[in-house]
Amino acid sequence: MEEFSQKIPRFNTGRITLAPGADPGNSGAMSDSLSRRIEARRDELIALTQALIRIPTLNPPGENYRAICDMLKTRLTARGFACELVRAEGAPGDSERYPRWNLVARHEGARPGDCVHFNSHHDVVEVGHGWTRDPFGAELDGDRIFGRGACDMKGGLAASVIAAEAFIEAHPDYAGAIEISATADEESGGYGGVAYLAEKGWFAPERVQHVIIPEPLNKDRICLGHRGGWWAEIETKGEIAHGSMPFLGDCAVRHMGAVLAAFEERLFPAMAARHTEMPVVPEGARQSTMNINAIHGGQPENLPDFDGLPAHCVPDSCRIVIDRRFLIEETADGVRDEVVALLEDLKARRENFDYEIRELNRVIPSMTDRDAPVVTTVTEAIREELGTEATYVASPGSYDQKHIDRIGKLKNCIAYGPGVLELAHKPDEWVGVTDMLDSARVMGRSLERLLLPK
């Protein structure tokens, strides 16, 4: 992605309030009726969420993408949506075995007007360990539906579908259009999903005006954007030799130990001292952070069916993958230069130290202005439907807003949806039914404000 000079938007880390004299319009009575329609669909919302969870769209490698798109296409076509399946041919990960399928469904109103687009990713991360429930059983226990992807973000997808269907039934003469997309690969960068669609013009501002991404940021919070990310692989070099005579070789793992020590002594303290004006949640993410994703040195691990001993060799290579999350006040080039400078310093001071660094990906921070139409609309809808003031937040990790912003050139985009952010990617992930209904009501009222006469 290209680097650019980022204009820092105006932030407000407190509660959102309506502008003085703001008129909620004539949507009150209509929204009461729409809210009742949405509440009446509780069982339908549960069933839809369970059906989505029970399709294991694991990424990697990208399983069952077509199955979930076909299921949604069948449902939405029957309700008057024109549906198109879009394969992201040539995108990272796309193959004949694991094609990157996306669904875009559009419902046209009775007359011209704006288009409101709900975008949800349909892929989920690996299951991991520690589950006490079937990860794809979609068990309903009280007010909670459990399963991988329940929170992140099939619950949000289901809520947007129910909200849109109820709105269309209540207001068949609305102006404009409603789109619902279910897209691939958000969990691995979104390049086989929203990035591909944006490159093909699906999010061009002349065809879509408002975008809501139902990521799990809590039902009374509006997410304006996210931090940036810079991923890289660092390899330290050595020389192979017999393990009983390591002095005849050069241990790449020890060189990597020096890199990690320099990170601990210099880079991590420097990052901890940097803080952002972005309203990032949780609080710990308001500073620069870095995670060591993986480390490997020496011989490959034994295959599961081999129980022999390793050979005696000095490792001539050691690799780590780093995940550096940066603030809107920083730049991706500056982040990279800081790591390279540290490695170059080691090269100058440490005997036989040599390295290679390979950038894997970069994501520039994205922030929508708090005065954007979709922000003020959802703000008012939260206040009216939930009886509370909304809060502006920013996400610690990136999501598909980056592609809608950078590639699609559409700034009027937020994340808003049900679910607790801290449950994402965790064992026994769940989403609350009441939270989904409340979020669907907010989405429905937002549609009324954007697509009905004032």
From TrEMBL:
Which Enzyme Commission number(s) are on file for it?
Answer: 3.5.1.18
UniProt keyword annotations, A-Z: Cobalt, Hydrolase, Metal-binding, Zinc
Which Gene3D superfamilies does the entry link to? Answer: 3.30.70.360, Zn peptidases
Annotated region (Disordered) at 13-34
Specify whether Hydrolase is a keyword of the entry. Answer: yes
Residue limits of the Peptidase M20 dimerisation domain? 225-348
Among the GO molecular function terms of this UniProt record, one is:
succinyl-diaminopimelate desuccinylase activity
The reaction(s) catalysed by this protein are: N-succinyl-(2S,6S)-2,6-diaminopimelate + H2O = (2S,6S)-2,6-diaminopimelate + succinate
Q: Which domain of life is it from?
A: Bacteria
Q: Which InterPro entries match?
A: ArgE/DapE, ArgE/DapE_CS, Bact_exopeptidase_dim_dom, Peptidase_M20, Peptidase_M20_dimer, Peptidase_M20A
Biological process (GO), any one: lysine biosynthetic process via diaminopimelate
Record pathway? Amino-acid biosynthesis; L-lysine biosynthesis via DAP pathway; LL-2,6-diaminopimelate from (S)-tetrahydrodipicolinate (succinylase route): step 3/3
**EC main group:** hydrolase
Required co-factors? Zn(2+); Co(2+)
Please state which protein family the record places this protein in.
Answer: Belongs to the peptidase M20A family.
Name by which UniProt lists this protein: Probable succinyl-diaminopimelate desuccinylase
Organism, as annotated: Salipiger bermudensis (strain DSM 26914 / JCM 13377 / KCTC 12554 / HTCC2601) (Pelagibaca bermudensis)
